[in-house]
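[audit] Reproducing an earlier prediction to check determinism. Same input, same settings, fresh worker. If the tokens differ from the archived copy the diff job will pick it up downstream; this log only records the rerun itself.
[audit] input (469 residues):
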Amino acid sequence: MTQKAKSSIFIVIVSAVLLAIIGCSAGESKVTEPIEIKPEITVISDPEPTLSPTPTPVVDMEEGSYDISEMPLFAIEGADFVPFSLGYEQISAEREDGTPVIAEEPEETGEEEEETEGEEDSEEKEKSESKEKEAEAGDEETPVDAEAEKIYNTYKITLKSGLKFADGTPVTAEDVLFNIKAHAAKGYRGDYGLGDLDIPGMAEFHTQVPAEEREKVDTIIRAGGFDPEEEKYPEIEGIDPKDQDEVWGCYDEAGVVFAQEIIDYVNSNYALNAYVNAFMSGYLTYAKVEASENLKTAFAFIVWGYGRSKNPYNYRKNTLTTVSGKVYELNEEEIGAIELWEEIKEYYKGDLSEDGIDNDVVPGGKTIEELMADAYFAKQDYVVKDIRGIICGTTRDEKNIERECIYLTLSNEYSLSDFNFFLTAPKDYESTGELNDPEVIIEIEEESEEDAEEGEEGEEGEAQAGGES
């Protein structure tokens, strides 16, 4: 036998051995227990609608990266921003109770050299005195940290003069206030909403609910509902029982919204075959669940813990058995948020605490109390026209020139960089219903002193008409 033949036989033998090993491995893999796969939750959310397109910024818009004097107002030809503010200054500060905050001025002492030399000794002395006071205080209450206290700062924001809309109409403080209200309105869904800022009167304007009405409803809800044993509502000083009846009359209406939020949440975040197989039946797919409102509701029942602990859904009979023992024939009857809400009420016996019904609130959702208040407010005819913390006024600059201004009161939890929006002519908004309209152009007539000097030389000054004041 030749060497080449021997080599060929050797190769054949090795190949056969390898194939045998591969075959054994393949055989073993078929009988191996399947690996349990835990699918990740997929959150499906709709993008927030905006009323209109927003121009692309050409300045850094990150929080705290720019001064209010650089605040964008609107885009000229969709490219450059024109700030409406000539300047600003803080004119006062108050605590929540209205008491003024007075800045303490450092006491003047001796010469600077003496202060520098005695600085270290002074610090040591202060530390020593502080320790002695802490020891003497014992169990006394710790004083409130002044830096952590909420303060409302009032700013005067002076407008530039010479600002005009495309039709030549001057930009006034009233126009700016109009835009503030438009961006603070409850229905605004753009990128520059102001409704969440802590400004006196902003919450009332944004929700269109007066503060005293909200307090009344909160008091009614905290006191509890109708007592069947006493056959009356709890007595609340200054509250009409008729108001209690109207507020608690919204209980089931709010509950249906509460239950619908659960159904929507479950069918958005558990929309996978693996969850349907695990919670309902291995014969179902989520596509089948999604195609049936009954199955979507049954799916929410079971995922949220309101299905019977064992086999809550019968695929063959198409029935749902709830935790209370109720059986729904899904081929013959329709179920939805009302049925889920009734099950929730039955389970918690009307308990509205965090350990009760509010334990079932969806992530980011509202409590049953909040939904009940919303339902009551929606039936009222409140009108809140103004924001207490923002008013128009006039001032005089360093050259004694009268200018319009805005007085803004803002919590120290926010900075002026949060007070940011684009300006739209009121009549354009009224005709189109849109803010941030890229076709609205703001022009500036006022020139800086340097531009005015150049303007004397010829047409060069006219080219600066779009410059800032």
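[audit] rerun output stored. Observation attached for the diff report: The longest strand covers residues 85-95.
[audit] end
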